Structures are given as C-alpha cells and as structure tokens.
Amino acid sequence: MNLKKHSICVLFCFTSLISLNSQNKITYQKVEARQNALDPKWVAYDAKTIDKLPGFKVKKQLPSSIYGGSKMWQKEATGFFRTEKIDNRWWIVDPEGYPYIFKGVAVFNAGRSVNQQKAFDKKFGSKENWVNKESKLLRDNGFNGVGAWSNVDLVKNAENPLVYTVIISPMGMYHADHIKKYGGKYKEASWQNYRFDLVMVFDKEFDAYIEKSVKEISQYKNDKYLMGYFTDNELPWYNDALDKHLTLLAKDEQGYIAAKEWLDKRKGFNASASDITQEDRMAFTAFYFETYMKKVTDALRKADPNHMYLGCRFNQDKEQELTNPEIFKVAGKYMDIISINHYRKWEPSQELMNNWGEWSGKPFLITEWYTKGEDSGLPNNTGAGWLVRTQKERGLFYQNFTLELLKNKNSVGWHWFKYMDNDPQDLSTDYSNRDSNKGIVNGNFEPYQPLLKEMKLINDNAYELTRYFDKM
C-alpha cells in the first residue's frame, strides 16, 4: 500500500472510531438540584441509572434468606450477623451464612406530632397493624432492614421482623448533663453543641454514662435479627483538637491535663501549643478518638459479645475525620463496620471509599443520606440533603448514588434517611428535621410511588449488580 492510500485508510479508521464512540456514548438523564429552597442556584447533574448500564440485564432474583440476604452463595453460619471479605469484596454475612447487602430505611417509626398521630389512627388504628403493613411496604420495594432511631420494640416483635440496628448515646447522655453546669449554654459551640467542638472523652464522669447506656442492650444479645450497635452520632472529631484542648480549656480540666501529658511525652519536654506540628495534630486526633473507641467498645463487648459494633456515624459534611488516615486506622481496630453519614455530595467518591477500606481494613455502611422533592408541597428550607424538583428525580438520585456504592468493594449497604416526612408544625424537633421532604411516605403515611419505583429497581437487583461490577 502506498503512503497516500495508507494515510487515507488511517484517517477513515480514526473517523469511524470517533463515530462509533459517539454512537455508543451513554447519555444520562440530567437532574437539577440545589441545597435547599433558600438556595437560588440550580445545578444540573448526571444521574446514572440501571437501564443505562452497558450489557447489564435484569435477571430473576435468587431466593432470599429469612433475613433478606441472597442465596447466591453460602458460607459459615454463626447464628449472628458478621462480615467477611471474599474475592476482595466485603460482605455482611447473615446468621444463616448468606450474603446480605443492608438496604435499609432509618427512623422507621410512626411519628410523634399531633398531625402524624391523627393520620396514624385513621390509617392503621394500632401499632401492631402499622409495623406489619409498613414492614411489608419496605420489603415490597426491596428494602431488608431499618436503621437508627427506629421503633425497635415494634420491629423485633413483628409477625415477620426486619433486620434492625440499635443506637445508644453515651456521650450524648453525658453531654446533656455536662451543659447544665454552664447554665444550659456554652460560651462557644458548633451546631453539634459540644463545647469548643470537643468530645469529653478524657472525663472520668463520662465512664459512668457508658455503663448506664449499655445496660439496656442485654435484652438484644440473643436476637438474630439485630445487626449491631451504633454509639452516638456525628461527634466532632476535628483535626485541631490538640490546639483546642491546650488553649481553650482551663489547666485543671481533665481534657487539658490529658492533652498536656500526651504532648510532653511525645516531645520529650515541657511543650506548649506553639510547639504543635501538623503531624502532632493528626496523631493526637487518633489518640483522642481511640480513647472514646476503647471505652465504648469494651463496655459493648462485655454487655453483648454476639453482635457487631457499627461505629459512631462519622459526618461526611465536615470531612475532617474522613480524610484522616489515622482516624480510620483506629476505627478499623474497634469497629466491625464503619458508619458514615453522607451529605452535600451528589455521589460518593470512589477514591475516598477506596481510602476508607485501605486505611481501616474494614467495610463501611452509609447510615444517612437523602434528597428532597419540590413537588412534596413542603417548605424544604432545612436539612443537608439535596433538593430536586420531583419524586421521580429523588429516585434517580437514589439510583445514581447506590450504583456508586455497589461498585465499591468496601461498601456493604446504605440506610435512606428516612421513613417519614418532617411535620413543619412540630416545633419540638431540631431545626434540621423541621420542614423537609425526607421520607418515602408523607405525613399522611402515603407512599411516594415514583420514588419507590426507582428505589425498587436498584434494591431488587443489588446482588446481581455486584457481580456485574466485579466483572468490569
């Protein structure tokens, strides 16, 4: 072939390749979102959905275990939930030995406001009727469990129990009494309302609250439907904790004394805040965090050796602990599954999720995330979840987000936040849970069917999707 003909052939082949790639390029649906109804700026995002996955075919579901796991394979049955890494992917293994992806809904309860109670009485008439019917609603849409702040007593005693979790709050209990010493208000505190953004892990008084909080869990220790325990929620594990202990606390406070002793030992001399390096900060954060971890896990293991510790629910919004390898190394020593509340990101980062697994050597569970719909009729001024226009778009967001989770081999599930919408007239709730469309049902217990339709597609195909992604 002469040079001219060769050049023409190369050009033709190159042009054909571009044309082929253009034809095969996936066009995802665009979903516009903003932070809340007070944010004037809408931003368009791609929403990856199951129907756009190249070569993926929806198959008939394999039989399920009684816990909602899949009978795609079976490992050792220990009688309780556990985790195992198989072919480089982490799994929850149910009490019968089957793989279990935790597809849950948090705050599964019937509400507490006057309006919610009226709607409850009209639709259900009794708590038993509510839990049985709404458990079926969850199962019919591919969910297999409930997350934190659910009505555990009703769930575990239902005709057909869902897998559940229990949250105890030892630091929260101590904090509620600690703030009374300051007249109910600290001089300086963040939205979490911890004094100087510090968790009082070094206080000897805290230990008594741990013992008090774990006393209640003995009733669950033989229950096979219990996944495990959370302790507290979104504690402020910030990277400047060493500086704050040394500069904001009085020198006779237990937190100051512990931090000063730690720094002096590390430096080998009588050190001050001016001697602190970034390496010191990261190392102290790990020490500070481990003090909490050791105390709560020792108490939990003693009270219930059968069930998993699911962590203290890191806060994605602040990110400091989620980009600190030292925090995750500590978490991996004590947690069976690392719990993370995930907000203000359109989708989870594969790089960050890989880091969590590498740093900790443990799987993770997304324990809060949601988006709100303008068509709900609610104000939607509060809460950290995205605001989109419709219930269907809430479902598209769900598909996009969970596909990224299923793709990652360190992820073992998620808990949508939450079961029921906020009641704007219930002023007894905290501000972030006041007026927004977070639920899969509205205030009258009416399901958002366009949302649930999209959720069900992913939920029903979750196990097959792990096979699909693992072959890529």
Describe it for me?
By secondary structure, the chain is α/β, with parallel strands linked by helices. Helix content is 38%, strand content 14%. The protein has 14 helices and 16 strands. It has helices at 3-24, 114-123, 127-140, 152-156, 170-178, 204-214, 241-248, 254-267, 278-303, 325-334, 350-360, 391-407, 449-460, 462-470; strands at residues 29-33, 43-47, 82-86, 89-93, 99-100, 102-105, 145-146, 164-168, 226-231, 308-309, 314-315, 338-341, 364-368, 371-373, 386-388, 411-416. The strands form five sheets. A six-stranded parallel beta sheet has the order 7-6-16-13-12-11, with helices on one face. A three-stranded antiparallel beta sheet has the order 3-4-5, with no helix packed on it. Strands 8-9-10 form a three-stranded parallel beta sheet. α6 (204-214) packs parallel to α9 and α7 crosses α8 (254-267). The longest helix has 26 residues, at 278-303. It is globular. It comes from Flavobacterium anhuiense. InterPro entries: GH. This is Agarase.
Briefly, what is this?
The protein has helices at 3-24, 114-123, 127-140, 152-156, 170-178, 204-214, 241-248, 254-267, 278-303, 325-334, 350-360, 391-407, 449-460, 462-470, and strands spanning 29-33, 43-47, 82-86, 89-93, 99-100, 102-105, 145-146, 164-168, 226-231, 308-309, 314-315, 338-341, 364-368, 371-373, 386-388, 411-416. With 472 residues, the protein is an alpha/beta fold.
